[in-house]
Amino acid sequence: MSSPSSSARKRARSSNPPTPASEDPLSLSPRPREPSTGELQPMPTSPGTDMQSPAIQDTSLFSSPVARRSVPQSEVDMSSPLIYDTPSRGTPARQRPDLGSVRKAPQVDLNSEPPSGDATVASEQTAGQRLVIWGTDVNVGTCKEKFQRFLQRFIDPSSREDENACLDLNEPLYMQKLDEISVVGDPVLNVNCGHIQTFDADLYRQLICYPQEVIPTFDMAVNELFFDRYPDSVLEHQIQVRPYNALKTRNMRSLNPEDIDQLITISGMVIRTSQLIPEMQEAFFRCQVCAFSTRVEVDRGRIAEPAVCRNCNTTHSMALVHNRSVFSDKQMIKLQESPEDMPAGQTPHTTVVYAHNDLVDKVQPGDRVNITGIYRAAPMRVNPRQSQVKSVYKTHIDAIHFRKTDERRLHGLEEENEQKLFTEERVSMLKELAAKPDVYDRLSSALAPSIYEHEDIKKGILLQLFGGTRKDFSQTGRGNFRAEINILLCGDPGTSKSQLLQYVYNLVPRGQYTSGKGSSAVGLTAYVMKDPETRQLVLQTGALVLSDNGICCIDEFDKMSDSTRSVLHEVMEQQTLSIAKAGIICQLNARTSILAAANPVESQWNPKKTTIENIQLPHTLLSRFDLIFLMLDPQDEAYDRRLAHHLVSLYYQSEDQVEEEYLDMAVLKDYIAYARTYINPRLCEEASQALIEAYVDMRKIGSGRGMVSAYPRQLESLIRLAEAHAKVRFSDKVETIDVEEAKRLHREALKQSATDPRTGFVDISILTTGMSATARKRKEEVAQALKKLIQSKGKMPAMKYQQLFDDLRGQSEAAITKDMFDEALRALTDEDYLTVTGKTVRLL
Amino acid sequence: MPSVQDWINNPLGVVDGAFAQNNSGAEWEKKVVEYFKEKLKVNGAQSWVPSLNDVPLHYLKPNSLVKFRCMIQDMFDPEFFMGVYETVDSSTNSKVLRCGKYKDVTDCGQVDFNSRNAVTSERQTFYCVPIPGESQWVKENYACSSQARVVPSTSYTPNRHKRSYEEDDEMDTQAQQENKLNSGPPNVDSHRNVESKRLETEAPSQNNSPSRCSSNLDLNFPLPGEQGPACLVKVYEGWDGFKLNDMLEVFGILSVDPALSLMADDKEASSLLDPTESMETVEEQRAHSPPASLVPRIHMLYAQPLKHNNPLLPSAVSEDKGAFLSGVLSELTSVRSELLTYLTHIFLGDSLAAEYLILHLISSVYARRDVLPLGKFTLNVSGCPHSSPYTDQLYQIIQQLVPSSYQICMSLHNMNNQRMVPRKDYTANRLVSGTLQLASNTSLFLDETQLEQGQLDATGVRNITALGNLISWQKVDYDFNYHQMEFPCNINVLIVSEGRSLLPSDCQVHLRPALSPPNLEEYLKTVQLAQASSQLNKYRVYFTVARSLDYNISDQITKAVEEDFVEMRKDDPQSVSAEDLHRMLIVARLLSLSYGQTSLSRENWIKAKQMEMMRISRTQQQKCVNGNEP
């Protein structure tokens, strides 16, 4: 349901700004020129209002606004300094329930009463300005002036916020925003508290400490300014100032009693939103005897019901008329600490947030938000009839501004840009580290120190963590090139594959860990679910989508069903996920790197078989992995000794001893985050030459045996790896050494995974065709032998199949199976040398 | 002792006194805490304080000092309260400053909310439950030690204890049975077994004394069928130091003000008054402010983290701890051999399995290297007879040895229906517990012999995954709906199965019975009965002490181990992997500890190797046998 005020507001939005000439006094459209806006348009359905509305219209149109009694009362009390005495004849003001009952604040002359606390600040002011709001050191006049000065003068040339994208950074920022308001008509001015602080620290302090008083003053100031500049513009209501990013940004845990009634910004995740609650702002009473009506404002949740009718002096004759009272929207939101902010071993805290008016329904459960608002506490009463009070306060936050932190992901920007701001020292520390010549080795040994050796695999994973550079070729029609590096680990059980995966999963901010055995295609991608409460169809994302910009670790890759694995095809090359189900057709981003671990088919690696036979995964999928590592036992004495030493030390070394030896996990995390955010290496000329050479070499190796062995995909892999290596060095250029390392790693991985068991050669063709070159050679030999045999038989147009087979077997010294014979026949058929029909073989 | 009277019966008097004395400073708060700490340090002073664990709530005096042995099940949001407030007496119009610390409700008079002297303070609330799976003997021993010294208290105290026992018939019969068990008539004992079994299997149906709880209110115990009060513990300082699932002994002021419950009843009335309150759902109200008669509040003065909940060991503060320890250590070896004989009998003459069980029971995660927990030793005893109640009896025996334990029958029904992983309920805003929310060093007994063929549904798969994660990484991923949160744990998992378990384990021992008694049940009972309770107590102390010993490996032995490993690999690289070395090192560590030795000796290393050899050859043989079977 929507409250009367919200419905009125909606109508106001849709109607054109009426001019006095066009305005029909009888029309039901709201009267934007009427200053008494506390009384919003009554419900059209109510007969009483229908009767009354023309009358009100008349008086309001033709009487002077000052004469109307209800004008100031509806908004702000006359006695308060916060009257909106703006020149905005045309634009109604709107109550700000988010700020609470401002109007009750009395003004105090500092001369007559000693100031409560901040005497020093106040005494600097001139005598004429000594009037401050009670309990604060805020002088309305000064405050207003300061804020106006801020709006007119503040320039932030280095601004990097996306909101300011199309603004001229060398002009006053907020004047441009006012200009925008006059064009767009959305009467909300978001002000970055950080800007206020750099401009006027004292004003900022006041804003933080007394938001309830200062923000209305800001409102006043901005409206004066706005209607000075744009006297003709008509807004839905007066401009409201919404400060955000109060620099005291805190996490929920650090909120304490000193923050009560102050402006705070906290981050968290929305876990629950309530339904819309209409909250009465102003009650409408009518005398049942004489029909005299009066309005009473709600003060702190209470309505003072008039006992006597002022018109006819009847007692207890006033009755509340609901549909003429003014309501505002309100929504309760539960905010939970974001998981990153929490100390280990504790449960997250939650806070209640109230959103008012148009902030209602701005956020959904699951959203990560930064909320700026005023922290409130109210005592709880045990029982209304008792004077005893539960000595506990209920706390909540009245939201003034929401900022979704994960919005940017939709635009494909790295979230870390804003989130991970490194301190100066940290950056210089990281740079110092990057300058060390052995940084690559250092980092790779810092990765999962409890896992022994496997240096190349760790290096591969390290490069995966850094990733390549994202390239956009969408203009030329190829779309995005993937920057993510996919790695497959394959090896004997118990070679700590899972442990590596777990480690990576714990290291990266957006990692997902699934097991092939336990996940379905749906669990990996996304599924559509009906929300039990709202009955809406909701798209629930699976592991792959959740690890967008992260790493998806898939354990027991071999145990995954084929249909599930096929989902990965799209993800691993195009980096998107297409979904078409239950009427939802969409493409989701899944720019995730995949780190998969698989056991060999016979659970133990069979050295007598090729990799393909051992892994038994479709080639289409295998070729999408940039690196395929085998984790095999090196079976080497020296290695064993080192391994034993390493393991034994695990069992007696104290934890700090180990800490010293390796880089801290936190440093590694920061290093990666920094590199991913700020370093975008590009290929230099030499490097491209080196890449070309490397590629040509790879092709040559294959062509030597008459086979195409390397594909463009492998070249792309090389480029990505080289880029990642450049990132490790914090270098903006990909140089030859990067290419060298990429080549080495690629070869290293392949050397192990594509060694032909029969020849001992490295053979990439195993990966691409699933068959080793020797096997192919043998096939050819059989075909040639068969051809010779047929030729030796002279001119015979047709032969018996069985007889030919027997002849061949008799002639060949090696055993020839029926399969081999069939294959040879097929090869000859392909050469258009013969055809096989049924049991006869015909020459052509 | 009149002073005892004061600080136990009227601790708030002490608090108010201190507050009145130095009105201005904040030191009084520290002084109060110091005062109680001092008082509790006195030898035996802790046992004068009645415990919520063994005294029913309605026998305790409101606002008196109580203690509570518990585990933190959930942490609520911090709350702000009136630390200092001013009341106005309406008749005389005089203002009085009062202290709101350690209280739920303000005292008499109208509170002046706008007072300048008021101080708002912050406190944190923990939802605490009795330690899940705490064995009966632990409860009894704690209760006994407390009762023994309560004598100096007022006239009603002993009386209260007596009545509490009458009331608590369950515990009472148990105690009686314990006595009878020692004297030995077997028929009563069988009754005991049946009863305790019933308690375990049909636990969810509440068959306890009516005084305990009336239960449409879910007290959110991790394990079904648990009893005892749950408590809301209000913590005033240092709450960041506590973690979920920590075991604590809380000393604090009991608050059961009926006003707290009244609020829950009168919800409609109060919600009219306070608009903010109406925003809370009914569920949330129930979870966060349950009636005080069911969930009392304790205002914490002092909390002592418990490393173990074994009542037979002296508490951490007492002075004679060192002497006690050295006493235990001196006879550790002899206790070990007795224990080994006992367990060998239990395992039907299989001493190897008994050895491994000892190692398993003293294992504990002592460190974590990045994701790898070190020191865990999950044991899979395979080859257990399927049909007989052998596994149940085995569990009962373990229950008698360890302070806390829990048995999960891995039947399909259980796997598909039990909630194992705790889940955050956002409507009620609390963490709904699951059976895997256990305190440190709890023994989890997984009975896989109960598993039959059939389909696991989504919950079942999740449960199996959770169990697998628990075993491999010693962590449980709590379900927070929008994300998962990892909580490290330290749970000893013992799996009994027919064949190799479907869950991962560190070590699998195939049971090889040397004797097959005609009546298995009868046999096990006689073995059990042969153990005097003093004997059992020795074993109990043994496990706790052995677990807490320090351990190291000298350089010399390190070298030897390395040599050994290289040597073993030389012979047959396939048979010994890094994984095997890991296991051998754990076995060696636990073996040393089980003899009370704090560093690895050559003999123990060799013994560990031999044990592993024997165990592996046994499993391989088993494989052969199975392979030959059609």
Automatic annotation (TrEMBL), chain A:
Domain of life: Eukaryota
GO cellular component: MCM complex; nucleus
UniProtKB keywords: ATP-binding, Cell cycle, DNA replication, DNA-binding, Helicase, Hydrolase, Nucleotide-binding, Nucleus
EC top class, as a word: hydrolase
Gene Ontology BP, a term: double-strand break repair via break-induced replication
Location in or out of the cell: Nucleus
Catalytic activity: ATP + H2O = ADP + phosphate + H(+)
Domain MCM C-terminal AAA(+) ATPase: 439-647
EC number(s) stated in the UniProt entry for this protein: 3.6.4.12
InterPro entries reported for this sequence: AAA+_ATPase (IPR003593), MCM (IPR031327), MCM_4 (IPR008047), MCM_CS (IPR018525), MCM_dom (IPR001208), MCM_lid (IPR041562), MCM_N (IPR027925), MCM_OB (IPR033762)
Annotated segments matching region Disordered: 1-124
Pfam families: MCM, MCM_lid, MCM_N, MCM_OB, WHD_MCM4
Record GO terms (molecular function): ATP binding; ATP hydrolysis activity; single-stranded DNA binding; single-stranded DNA helicase activity
Polar residues bias (residue ranges): 46-63
PROSITE patterns: MCM_1, MCM_2
Record function comment: Acts as a component of the MCM2-7 complex (MCM complex) which is the replicative helicase essential for 'once per cell cycle' DNA replication initiation and elongation in eukaryotic cells. Core component of CDC45-MCM-GINS (CMG) helicase, the molecular machine that unwinds template DNA during replication, and around which the replisome is built.
Family, per entry: Belongs to the MCM family.
Subunit details: Component of the MCM2-7 complex.
Listed PANTHER family: DNA REPLICATION LICENSING FACTOR MCM FAMILY MEMBER, DNA REPLICATION LICENSING FACTOR MCM4
Protein name: DNA replication licensing factor MCM4
From TrEMBL, chain B:
Compositionally biased residues, Polar residues: 173-185, 203-216
The protein's name in its UniProt record: Mini-chromosome maintenance complex-binding protein
Gene Ontology molecular functions: chromatin binding
Coiled-coil ranges from the UniProt annotation: none
Organism taxonomic ancestry: Eukaryota, Metazoa, Chordata, Craniata, Vertebrata
Annotated signal peptide: none
Region Disordered: start-end pairs: 153-216
Keywords carried by this UniProt record: Nucleus
Pfam families: MCM_bind
Biased composition (Basic and acidic residues): 189-201
Annotated gene: MCMBP
Family statement: Belongs to the MCMBP family.
GO BP of this protein: DNA-templated DNA replication
Superkingdom, natural source: Eukaryota
Record organism: Pygocentrus nattereri (Red-bellied piranha)
